[in-house]
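Blackboard transcription, Thursday session:
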Amino acid sequence: MDIVCVLFDGITALDIVGPYEVLQRLPEANVKFTATERGEIRTDNRFLGLVADHTFADTTSADVLVVPGGFATRALEKDAALLEWIRAIDLTTTWTTSVCTGSMLLAAAGLLEGKEATSHWASLVRLREYGAIPTSRRVVEQGKIVTAAGVSSGIDMALTLTARIAGDDFAQGVQLGIEYDPQPPFDSGSVDKAPKAIFEFLSAMYAGRL
Amino acid sequence: MDIVCVLFDGITALDIVGPYEVLQRLPEANVKFTATERGEIRTDNRFLGLVADHTFADTTSADVLVVPGGFATRALEKDAALLEWIRAIDLTTTWTTSVCTGSMLLAAAGLLEGKEATSHWASLVRLREYGAIPTSRRVVEQGKIVTAAGVSSGIDMALTLTARIAGDDFAQGVQLGIEYDPQPPFDSGSVDKAPKAIFEFLSAMYAGRL
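(Written on the board underneath:)
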């Protein structure tokens, strides 16, 4: 099973490493980190390099496509070659997925038109620009397209997908394997739950960037 | 603030990328991915390369040390040079932390003697071999030493640490930034919660490896 994980300069690392850590445990998983060129790409803050072993040019199909996000996607929404590649790969997939602002790339590629979808909360409303229906659920399934909310939500998305692919028992085993029994020290992980001042501070910080 | 993230061949990626994604957002964070040699290291399944920009030899201090885990730590518990480096860095840190079986390395280095600590559930009891007190809490704080349970728990640990370093408001902002409002599709992320058959299957799979 070819699981194609997209990498690009400026990626938010957890967007892709969260789903990868879950999906790599699927039976016969063959995870292919894929970018414009082989070699190192750098995350948003430049602190971490992730290595692409495959290129978009040499990747012509996928069973599962995972498109992550980050500040870089704002510019990539206009990258015609990338969007064309996403459209072509989607024609071959069993599942086409995104995390965070990765959904903006699926949307810009025309894959979310008329569909419910989610994204990082700071970019959610912009899905409308591409004809998608912004939905604030953490994981949104629309046929074979599965979008997830911001950054950390890719773990929940990937467990959901694992259950669809390999069954509930298998997914529960993966959840125990990664000991995913989340206990955040605060309850401020969504727009509805975070203190208003904190939401407003971050909204201003992200404005025009996500 | 120097945040030194340890890398080694066979690492479990989410162990280190989870905490990194949180801690890199601290004010003046300078995250240094550090390994025996500069360059690419491969994760447990070989699918992903992570890049070390720094070496143990050129890293002589840290404000925060993060030691991740994975199947590779079982052998590293006997790596005298690594354990000596961990001891030397710990003398300089404000916080010494671990995720998953990273605590086995802190323990083997002698840093957990007489202290409560946690680890991946499959290796937890082995902490006793090094004089630590196995504790099944997800995040265990003992003075400046903070250990976290398996794989995904590093996110919770890092948010806890962020609150200690930069205050509760800041940590809540980071939590909203990464939209960490976990909603796993199952409730099987701990030994107490997972179906017994699934626990037994994984226990057999991990036996002698973690």
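Lecturer's comment: Chain A touches chain B through 64 residues (CB under 8 Å).
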